[in-house]
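call fold(seq) -> tokens
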Amino acid sequence: MAPSNGRLLIFGLGYTASAVAARLDGWQVSATGSAGDLDFEDDTSVTAAIGNATHILSSVPPAEDDPVLTQYGDRFGDRWLGYLSSTGVYGDTGGAWVDESAPIKGRREPRNRADADWRAMGARVFRLPGIYGPGRSPLDRVAAGAAHRTGIAGQVFSRIHVDDLARGVIAGFDAPPGAYNLADDLPAPQDSVVEFASMLLGIEPPAIVPLEALSPAARAFHAENRRVANGKAKRVLGWCPIYADYLLGLRALNAMTSPAPASTAPAIANPDQR
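ret:
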């Protein structure tokens, strides 16, 4: 449990980090980013915020180098450090399970380096899969006509509800430095998730789009296939996802916006197979 009087400095107050801040009752929170109160380039103000902070969390993705470590890393001292990384650092595993002991071989070298650099600083590095939650989920994409299916057999991804992610980061306040996968318990094909979201909304699933018709970035994403294990986070952080699979997570999100009981939605008997 987080102490009630901490002072958190967030680098990059976006969708995910905002969910962490929202759960910290009684905390003083300062942040860079469009929604924050600090200008990242204001060296004097940011340095003062670092000096005031008990905890520092970065969600800023790297370019060639990590901008947070490059500009301010030498001023962190012995404060609690957290970094929101990506399970993309594991690269493709051919659908096999992967845990924190696996080598770092992701296709984005700057992310690989940033992950390693933050760990070298003594940070708690939270490796995150696909993030979904209120206003940013397959339900929203399906409703907006922005979702698609690929028809790729045997390909699975892991994901995490933003509320579970926030709870995991806060559980990490009392944990030793190191890497932690924050993922739900049921890796699943994207098509199964999109189809379930469509059923919840009562509309036909979107069309299948051939892989060759996708953007280069989307093709690169779909070139990877892995199941992310969360056992270390459960053991060391004492954390367990409330939304243990996308079925629970999407039902809960649908219930927030729909008058129909979420329990009436049809279930998928085995959503990890197509």
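The chain has one domain: 7-264.
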